[in-house]
Each structure stands twice: as C-alpha cells, then as structure tokens.
Amino acid sequence: MERSVEPSFIRGEVKAPPSKSMTQRAIAAALLADGQSLILNPSYCDDSLAAMSIAVSLGARVEPEAGRMKITGSGELKEKKLNCGESGLAIRLFSPVAALYDEEIMMTGAGSLKKRPMHMICDALNQLGVKCSSSDGFLPLTIRGPIKGGACEIDGSLSSQLLTGLLMSLPLADNDSVIRVNNLKSRPYIDMTLGVLRDFGINIINKNYTIFEVPGHQKYLPMTYEVESDWSGGSFLLAAGAINGNLRITGLHTDSFQSDIGILKALGMAGANLIISKGSIEISKSYMKAFEIDATESPDLFPPLVALASYCNGITRIKGASRLVHKESDRASALSEEFGKMNIKVEIIGDHLLVTGGKVKGAKVNSHDDHRIAMAEAVAALGASDTVFIKDSHCIAKSYPGFFDDLRKIGAMVHE
Questions:
Q1: Which of 346, 385, 341, 334 minimizes the C-alpha distance to 363?
Q2: DSSP string spanning 20-41?
Q3: Which one of the listed residues 300, 369, 370, 406 is annotated catalytic?
Q4: Which of 139, 181, 235, 241 could disulfide-link 245, Cβ–Cβ 3.0 to 4.6 Å?
Q5: SS in 3 state form for 175-239?
Q6: pLDDT, tens digit, 9 for 90 and up, residues 74-109
Q7: Beta-sheet strand order (sheet of 205-207)
Q8: pLDDT value for 185
Q9: CA distance 336 to 332
Q10: What is d(CA 205, CA 352) in angstroms, rounded to the nearest whole number?
Q11: CA separation for the pair 63, 44 (Å, rounded)
Q12: SS3 313
C-alpha cells in the first residue's frame, strides 16, 4: 500500500503504543506458567500475533480482548510447525522454548526472516543436548528436544535475542545451566528479559553479562502482567514533535529498561524543546543542532534518529551502523538511499552514519518492507517542502499498526 504524507504541523496528545518486545516475552512466560495469566496493555502488532499463534501451537489457550489478553499455559503440544512470520525475536525466543518438548518441531518464517542467518540457534541448542538443524544456515529449523541444560557458549555481538530465548527456556530443563556470552550487545534488552522472568517467579544469576547461571527445575508462576509503552514506537512520535509539532506524549516510563529511551539523550543534545514530567513528555518544534550519539545498544533507534538529524543544523554522527545489516532490511543502506531521495545526505563511514541536516524535499520513497524505515520517512515528511509518497507502507503493522492513525489524530495529512 502506498501512502502519502503532506507537510503538516501536528499538535495535541497521543499515547505511545504498547511494547511488542515486552508483549512477546510476556506471552512466552505465560505459555510456560501452569495456570492463567492476564496480560494488560498488550501489543496486537504482527509480531505479537505471531507469538500468540506459536503459544497456541505449543499448548496454550490464548483469549485476546481489547486492552488485555488471557493466557492459560502448560498445555500439550498441538502443532509441530511453528510460523514466526517476520519476527526475529520470535524465532530466537521460541526456538529454545520449542526445544523443551520431546517432539520434532519445525520453525518457519516469512519475508525477510528467511534471509536472516540462523546457525547461531542450532549451535547453542546442540550444545545443550538438542538436535537442531537448519537449511544451510537459514530457515526452516528442525528442533528435537527435550533441552537438557548444561553449558553453552554463544556470541552476543549481533543480537541478544537468542540469549533471551535460552534464559526463558533453561529454567525448565532437568539440569542446571551456565551460559557464557561473548561480546553481548543490547544489554538493556536482557535487563527487560530478566525483569519479566523475575515477575513470573524465575531466578537467574547474572555475572556481569558474560556468565548467566540458570538453576533447573524452576516453575513459572501465572500472574497479571502489564506491558509498558514502547520507546521504539514512542521515539518516532518524539521525533515528529521536534520536527514540526507541539505534542504531549503519554505512557512512556522514564525508568524503563528499554534501550530506545536513548532518544531522550539525542533530543537533549540536539537542543529540542523538551519537558519531561510524571506520566508525559511534551515536545515542540525548535531550532536543533547536530549531535553525536552511540546507538550500538539500541539499533532500532537509527531510523528515528536519521529523521531527527535531517532537521538538525550540521552533521550528526550515529555510531553502531554495523548492527543494522540483519534487520528487516539492510537499514543503513536503505536509510542512505531513501533519505537521499528527500535531499538528505546519509553516509556510511565504517561503523557510523553521518547525516547532514538540510531542507527535506518531497519525493517518492520505498519502505524496503521495513516498518521502521516507513515510519522514519513519514516523520521526516512532516516538515518537508512537498508531499512524500511511501511505497509499501503497510509494513508498519509489524510493530505499530496504529501509527498512521495516530498521526492523523494529531493533525498529519496522510492519504492512502
């Protein structure tokens, strides 16, 4: 679907969407708990729907409702083929969970997920007594458990998501486990995982993010869990307000473990007009200057940071570009190509993106089927000289299905 976004001054109040990554973790924990859990404020984006489907296949009863989700866990396996859609977190989280079952289970996916390497999943599971094979390092995966526990060593330089899956499954293994992690990136996401595990009654010993000791024979406790709002989605709203608006954004917790809370640091360095109070953040259009930030721990921030930097005077330097290759697209190249069409120079220099602020022009751009690229283009369009047409904008449903509706509510002229 192609949407067009006209230059628009936006104003009013908008609530940040619920976190899809926290929703997926909560679904997994509720699946593994014996009894009924209630998840409040869940995300019903495409990635969360994939996690819900997997939970049902693995034996859970899932009852989605407006603003809440009931999950009754610890049921018997119903389906042996699990489709993760395009969710990188789902494949890395639920593959170790599937390994808990004494059955052969196939993990599949769609779209860009088929192009993402999977050998690290098999390497880790095989170390833990699971028979796991891939198709030349890619999907589908064939997994035969049960996972036995023990010791394994993994590389955390590309993603922390496999570690999340291991931390969620190994507490139910027969034996105690030790996970050694080399060069872990995105540590805040592991803090998020450990927080969910604590809430559901699971104990993990974290030794400086390099060694994780996991006692076996633990039990997940059913509970009521509230999903916090998403700093990844909220970062686009904050950038939009700074570019051409006067917004009050609610729902974002300033004590969150989410790494994308780093958008506040970027906005501060840029000199954005920002007021943070309990329960809300107010942000409005102002003169902004270039900034320098390390986004290695928060790679999902690159698209909103590039949109923001487009309106900053000077050259912004964003470190961590090497983390962008195996996303829904090659995000660094996609950002350079598409923002170039809008008259913004984005250079890839080693591990940095250099963004030269300037006058954003109207253009026909492509989302590369990447939800965050599409949202970044829409945000940048708000202060452009003319209309921006975004091809394949439907991909925003992966994380923030109400994004364009929220933009309309605060005054953006969006057409489809």
A1: 341
A2: HHHHHHHHHHHHHBSSEEEEES
A3: 300
A4: 241
A5: CCEEEEEECCCCHHHHHHHHHHHHHCCCCCEEECCCEEEECCCCCECCCEEECCECHHHHHHHHH
A6: 889 999 999 999 999 999 999 999 999 999 999 999
A7: 150-155, 177-182, 211-214, 205-207
A8: 84
A9: 6
A10: 34
A11: 12
A12: strand
Is 300 in the active site?
yes
The distance from CA 279 to its chain's CA centroid, rounded to whole angstroms, is 22
Residue with tokens 């593959």: 95
- In angstroms, the CA 227 to CA 25 distance is 10
Residue bearing tokens 């290695």: 296
Distance CA 51, CA 35 (A): 18
CA–CA separation, 314 vs 400, rounded Å? 31
The whole-angstrom separation of Cα 47 and Cα 44 is: 8
**Token couple for 410:** 């605060």
- Angle among Cα 142, 61, 147 to the nearest 5 degrees reads 35
Closest residue by Cα to residue 29 from 179, 172, 214: 172
Report d(CA 97, CA 100) in Å as an integer.
Answer: 5
Per-residue pLDDT, 277: 93
Which stretches in the chain have pLDDT values below 50? none
Helix ranges restricted to H, 58-131: 88-98, 119-127
